Amino acid sequence: MEEPFHIPVGSEKTPGKFFSREWLADSLHPVKSDGLLMYLVMLCASLFFAYLITRFGFIPGVLILAVLIGLPVVYGLIVYPRFGVLVFLSSAYFIMFIDRMGVDFPLGTLMDFMELLFIIGFFIHQRTEKNWKIFKGPLSIMILIWILYNVLEVLNPSAESRLAWLYTVRSVAFIMLMFFVFLYNIRTREFIRIVLKLWLLFSLIGALYGLKQEFFGFNGPEEAYLHSDPNIEQLLFIGGTWRKFSIFTDPVSFSYNMVISALLCIGLITGPLKTWKKVVLGGIAAICLYSMLYSGTRGAFVLPPFALAVMAILRFNKRVFLVGAIAAVLLAILVFMPTSSQSVQRFQSAFRPSEDASFNVRKYNQKRIQPYILSHPIGGGLGATGAWGQRFAPYSFLASFPPDSGYVRVAVELGWVGLLIFCTLMFMILRTGILHFYAIRDPELKSYCLSMVLIVFALNLGNYPQEALVQFPTNVYFYLVTALIVITKRIDDEDRQLTEPVKQVL
Questions:
Q1: How far apart are CA 451 and CA 437, in angstroms?
Q2: What pLDDT digit, counting tens, does each position of 482-497 carry?
Q3: Distance between CA 273 and CA 279 in Å, rounded?
Q4: How far apart are the C-alpha atoms of 317 and 116, rounded to whole Å?
């Protein structure tokens, strides 16, 4: 007969030899020790750190915190990639807000370093798992072609600066590697739920902060930013009011993120959720769209109606047709009704682009750059326009050209060949999403896929009047959305394989 399991307590514990390995382990263990040696070590460490900060200033304290916090985070990113995914998505959403608050740290480089850790972790896991399926399939191959094309642009003979390429390729091509990171690490619907809940929480924070700026004003660092450059004031102070940017880079990024967050909520409402959850999602969508109005971004105002029209086509039935007809009538009333509100007037002008002076300027700029695009099939070099072009090649022809459009920037910097590859990639993402939406049987996964299709459509439409895919957090979340289009179908197929044999047995 076996002896009963028993935990030794009190005098039954046999102490280890003084200063032996067992004694040190027991003495430093937070549970086993009586606390004396552990507290002594902590006291000595705190006194040492205090001396360093007193003697050498603030920098050693920051470095110590970076080591104490950074090393566990680095370990977590490599060994526990799902934890890393959540950290990365959180960082992408708040990076520009932290930067505007005056944190003097290369946050963009930190994001690049996290991407590198994800890649290292992937290859470490491949030593045992040997799963390379994420690189197969037409969508993955197309993304790899786009990344390779951007990398080869360093050899473009028309490029005025290689440094401009180096700074730009990070946000245009290397960020796309996150598609494979998401595709590899997001494997269950439970984790998808966590990711989407986190996204909705961040969206609500962004929307409420935008409303805070509208009704309670900007804080000190934001006021300093607004008056730091006359060009910023010229762009953001319109009609006697400031355009709001919330926690994002600028009003454009703010408005587009609010639109895609609202579309995420609307897509999720179509799923098998309890009524109170649908009400909450509807409330978040309404707050996001309301807050978006104060960004003053005309290009964002037209995105929800067109995206909802796509949803009505994908889910066509009598009920959807009726709701869509009512929504169209309400939209027409809002567009044509007389009003004295600056925000509503700006919203109405988005549906009459021919009357918009800025839209006509964009059309003129696009017309005058067409001969250059046609004569440069691989473009003038990545980073030739915009801030990096003005910094590294200020006297070049393209440095002074304002692209004002994601597609125009691609055509100018990467040529009509690059534009063809880019448009093919976007078409394949949308095509894959639509096919997967109709193929997925699970109602929950189907609602996720629908949300992603609406977001991809909206961002591609918004990429014409503005640059929609290059700023944090949109550049990260767009490839999360793309990955989820593939992941939802993969999970649905796996669930179907598990259930169909059971049905056959029964």
A1: 10
A2: 999 999 999 999 888 8
A3: 10
A4: 47
